[in-house]
Structures are given as structure tokens and as C-alpha cells.
# Entry
Amino acid sequence: MTLGLRDRAPVARAFLMKGLLVCVLMILGGCAGTDAPVPPVASGGTVPSDKTEAQLLAELNDKFENAQAHYDLARVYHKSQNWNKAEYHYNVALGFNPANRAAQAGLVKMLADRGAKAKSDETANSYIRQAGVSVKETLRLGWEFEQLGMDEYALRSYRQAIAAAPDSDAANKQIGLYYLGKGDSANAKQYLMRSLELNPRQPDVAGALGRLGVVVQTPGIPQGPLEEKTK
# Structure
């Protein structure tokens, strides 16, 4: 049976309402994960894969200059503590892409894991200095260090970004989130409040501050600076 225009209208509305409900649920689902780590900048970086050694070697046999495959293979060897092969492939990945922050952090971590602490420190310092030409790259390197549990280098990177650009909302946000993750509420509040003052339209920062007991005011309504809730 063919529906007339009048009969189709309720059906169309029903589909529309169903679509809107799905969108709302998707948004709420995304909001539920606000505590998950978020990269400081749009990626463009290296994303690890779960490919096997054999698969990665086959890819390199087809195209040796595949920096991603070298990085992934380095991670495979790193995990199995095959230090020499891991170091080789991290370095080859960096040879093809010298600004690969994930590979830089991986190499530093590998050196530390194999017990070469002095070389690990030296390498990390070199990469942090190299990334210092850009706040964006410094934050990305700090983020990669943080994901590998290398807090000393992550914090050094974030502090370098703040020193270079104290009025960067991104730099203040990232170091604030770092402190939040470490349970340092005082420093987290300081930097997150500064980030929100510089850029009020950051719902993730506003949410983090709300959980820390800071009253977050709506953008566009002049009510003075951010204030902590009175306990």
C-alpha cells in the first residue's frame, strides 16, 4: 500500500525523532569519557598498530622507507626486550620522519628500560630542545612521554611550553590536565583556570574545573573572574 503525503508525515517525524535520540545518546556517550586522556593537539602523529612482526617485516620488504612500519616494529621488539632491534627500528623511523614524537618518546623509554639511564636522559633532553621551536610540538612530545609513564620528561616538556608561551590556553590546559591526573589539585586549578580565562570555550576544561570545585561561569555573561566554591 502506498502512503499519501499526510500519511507519510507522522512516519517522517518518527524517524526524525529517532535520529535525534541517537545523536543525543552518542553525544552523552562521548561526554561520559571526559576523564580519558586527550591529545593536546590534533593528531597527525603516529598511531601504534597491533600488527605482528611478520606482517611488519613484509610491509618493509615492500617499502623500506615506511616510517610507520619501522615504528610499529620497534614497539614489537621493545615489548619483547629485543633492545638492539628496537633501537635500530626506532632510529630508522626517525630517519624517515625526524619529528616523529611517538618514536622519540619510544626510543627514550627503550633506553631507560634497558638500563641506559644516562643515554636516555641525554636523548630526552635533545628531543625536548629540538621540539622547543614550537609550542605545539613541545606539547605533543610531552604528551607522548606522559603516555609512556615518563613523567619527568613530560613535565619538563610542558613547563618548557609554558615558559615559551605563558598565554597559551593549550599549554596551560595540558599541564593542568597533567597535574589533575597526578592528583595535584592546587596546580591543576591554577593552570586550568588560566587556560579557561584565555579561552572560555573549552567544555572539557570547564568540566575538569567543576569536578575540582571551581565555579565556571558561562561565556558571554560578565560576572568577574573564576572563583572557587565556598565550602
Notes: Residues 5-31 form the longest helix (27 residues). The longest strand covers residues 214-215. Residues 14-37, 221-225 have pLDDT under 50 and may be disordered. The beta strands are 214-215, 227-228.
